Amino acid sequence: MRAAGEKTPATAAGWRAFAARRWERAGAAAGQVAADLGDEALFLVLRGLGLPLDSPPEVLRRKLSAAENARLASLVERRAEGAPSAYLLKEAWLGGLRFHVDERVLIPRSYFTELIPGGLPLEPANVRRAADVCAGSACLAILMARHYRRARVDAVELSADALEVARLNVRRHRLTGRVALFRSDLFDAVPEAAYDLIVSNPPYEPSAVCDKLPREFQREPRMALDGGRDGLAIIRRLVAQAARRLAPEGVLAMEVGGLRNAMERGWPGVFHWLPTADGSDCVCLATSGALRRFHAASK
Ligand SMILES: C[S@@+](CC[C@H](N)C(=O)[O-])C[C@H]1O[C@@H](n2cnc3c(N)ncnc32)[C@H](O)[C@@H]1O
Q1: Do residues 198 and 252 make contact, with C-beta atoms less than 8 angstroms apart?
Q2: Which atom of ligand 1 is nearest the CA belonging to 137?
Q3: Are residues 156 and 282 in the same domain?
Q4: pLDDT tens profile 123-181
Q5: Does residue 40 sit in helix, strand or coil?
Q6: Is the whole-model pTM more than 0.90?
Q7: 228-269: per-residue pLDDT in tens?
Q8: Are 244 and 188 part of one and the same domain?
Q9: Ligand 1 within 6 A of 156 CB?
Q10: Which of 8, 66, 234, 267 is exposed most, by the fewest CB atoms within 10 A?
Q11: 106 contact partners, CB below 8 Å, separation of at least 6
């Protein structure tokens, strides 16, 4: 819907500016594919036209065909009505890689994108067994397999729908030989293994927060976000299981959103916090030794 006096755009640059204004008026929330609506609009316009994300600025000034204008008009309007850009385009980018995404999975936006390529205290050559628990689209399992080139990665996911998306992505990235998929409630149905690294971006939002999420976030699977009353329902079980699944020198790294204080109360001295570019204290790490000592002392 155009504001009074607003012209229909005829170039990609025009559509980008139009989209950002339209979404602003519609009360859209950013954060799924970009930190602000202007960057999300650039993503939707470029990829809606099938152009690379690193296209030179002159492509934005080209006059578009009637079919291109019609496609962008439809995408911009559906986004204004609450559909996430990544679901409209069926893609999301993480660590320079393209992943198929749709309503069956969370739109990838994890801090592990910055941490897997060098931000975890592990020598890549020493990582032979790794797991991505709560794998969703398998984006993190794939990033791990590409960084830890000698590792076999187990991607664990409870949702059968999400696992279909994960299977597609693992095939697309030609990693079926090294990334194994398991439908499992955390590690319950995964064969025993001693992991050098367990990574997880589990559901960690308290249920009451999920109830009030902006509408585009409500389109994501609830089970990808909802961590129960205090956000810790999945984390509690995962921490207990990881203590038994890690190799003696192994580490557990978890993204936990705003739960730092709760984690420090629940597992005093067990986790330390990994720096990320925005200084958000969202990702924590525990060694196998620290987890085992904690569980031994709590028996
Ligand atoms: C926050 S999403 C993370 C997805 C992906 N790793 C990413 O970073 O984009 C959490 C995922 O955990 C899955 N999940 C929820 N409960 C689970 C459980 N008990 N066991 C395994 N996976 C679970 C959800 O279906 C969802 O795909």
Answers
A1: yes
A2: 5
A3: yes
A4: 999 999 999 999 999 999 999 999 999 999 999 999 999 999 999 999 999 999 999 99
A5: helix
A6: yes
A7: 999 999 999 999 999 999 999 999 999 999 999 999 999 999
A8: yes
A9: yes
A10: 66
A11: 136, 137, 220, 221, 224, 225
